[in-house]
Amino acid sequence: MPPAPLLTLQNIHQTFGGTPLLSGAELAISAGERLCLVGRNGSGKSSLLKIAAGELTADKGERVLQGGVTIRYLAQEPDLSGYATTLAYVEAGLGPGDDEYRAAYLLERLGFTGEESTENLSGGEARRCALARVLAPEPDVLLLDEPTNHLDLPAIEWLEEELRGLRSALVLISHDRRFLQNLSKGTLWLDRGVTRKLDKGFGDFEDWRDEVLEQEELERHKLDRKIVNEEYWVRHGVSGRRKRNVRRMRDLEGLRQTRRDERKVAGDVKMTVSQGEMSGKLVFDVENISKSFGTQTVIDDLTLRVLRGDRLGVIGPNGAGKTTLLKMLTGALEPDSGTVKRGANLKLVTLDQGRAMLDPAMTLQNALTGGTTSDYVEVGDQRKHVISYMKDFLFAPEQARTPVGVLSGGERGRLMLARALALPSNLLVLDEPTNDLDLETLDLLEEMIADYPGTALVVSHDRDFLDRVATSVIAFEGDGKWIEYAGGYSDMVAQRGEGVTAKNSGVKAATKAEVKAAKAATAAKKKLGFKEQHALKTLPELIAKLETQAAALQAKLADPQFFAKDAAKFAATAAELEKTQAELAKAEEDWLALEMLREEIEG
Predict the structure, then answer these.
(1) Which candidate, 55, 49, 58, 74, places its Cα nearest to that of 11?
(2) 480 and 517 belong to one structural domain
(3) How many CB atoms lie within 10 A of CB 451?
(4) CA 155, CA 224: separation in Å to the nearest integer?
(5) What is the pLDDT of residues 286-331, one digit of tens each?
(6) Domain that includes residue 292, residue range
(7) Same structural domain for residues 45 and 115?
(8) Among candidate residues 111, 168, 113, the one with its CA nearest the CA of residue 136
(9) What CATH number has the domain bearing residue 594?
């Protein structure tokens, strides 16, 4: 008999503002289990984790924590108030018998002395300090809500190694696919208020989710057909059998009610970019630029060329000078030496990672219309009603008057995207665009960037995102040196031999593990699209059909009397055979190419 779970949530219900958020959600975590909790923004993941941590009481349901089990919870926005120093904050999280030296050790590994004032920390520093607090006790259960937010790549890679070495059971919420793939052994999907569990890691989740949704759609279609059949009976067969069939009428009403009550999957984000006038072919021509602040050299003798259509990823630890580089490229800051030539007709749109442009008192509608009282949003050369545009980004109509300050982190992220993408542009500068976005929105953002006709500069610590969108990356090498690598993050690791290391000697990247994983990660990013998967399934049938057609045509042409009887028809048949053979050859080549790609990805 397997041991009882350390922590169990059963039949959890939670309602906010009259809308059911959780309606029967469940969670069970056993010793040493590694579980990722996934779901759309606003689906209730953070609320479920808070209930698991005991920070929030559910409206209904049961929370069972085994006696003596220790639990630690990392909130999305940790509160360090009330503690004078970072060391005092971390030590306050230790329990009886915990190693007090581990608090100082973790702070040192994360770049702190322990004497820093908690009042002057940045968002990233506060997050690292909070991580030290929950990791120091080595609890039985560790609940982490977006632990990689505001962390740079060295910190993310260090955190992965630290979590691998812990014996704690883990429940992770993260938008970072690579982080989830590397750490999870099971997946809990929160969807429409309920949870489903997959006993495999995040790498297998998306295919499983798609299968579940396809089956639901099939069942929904069957229900619709049954309602149509019952309605036909009502109209044409009820008159002579009223008494016998009262029950059938009730059943029909029950079917209709089921259909009305059925909570469908939320719609997809519809991202469209307002395209500005096309820029020149050469966007940036950078020659030997350098920039220093006091004695610190941030950029030293950099030469770089960016062409229209490039998607340049900028990689480096915090403090390396990524923002300085972007400012010099776009003209907001001049280099100390060297030249930056900018192409013609550049129309720049920037996405601010800190959501600093959002006034918390402003309503969602006003934020989208630029602070005006208008009911319309100008999206390029189109005029869309603000409610329609809100729906494109998964906002409900009743949220139009909602203050920005009460939106979740994911909702604020979608709002920033909606504002940025409404402006005409041919140059996108995206500074940590993946923060707080759910996986479905990330997929669509990746597609939008891939289809964007202009140029994109992307600063990101999300390795999977860079692998999927970047045509090249420019990486910080230390001492002000930057080098451009073709491809995404994994390609850079394969060429460079290691990942990104910290600017100062605090957090170190796990380089050997990345080198070993680089080849597999490079293949993994080439995920077959829907059209490719469909072609791989249907091409064998098409090839067999074309082979049969070709054989039949050859048999006709082999008849020695055919030409003598009808020369014109013989010529037409010969032409048809040539066309069929050409189609067959192309289908075979397409299938072979897709099969080789599939083997590369899976192998």
Answers:
(1) 58
(2) yes
(3) 10
(4) 51
(5) 999 999 988 889 999 999 999 988 899 999 888 888 989 999 998 8
(6) 282-347+428-525
(7) yes
(8) 168
(9) 1.10.287.380
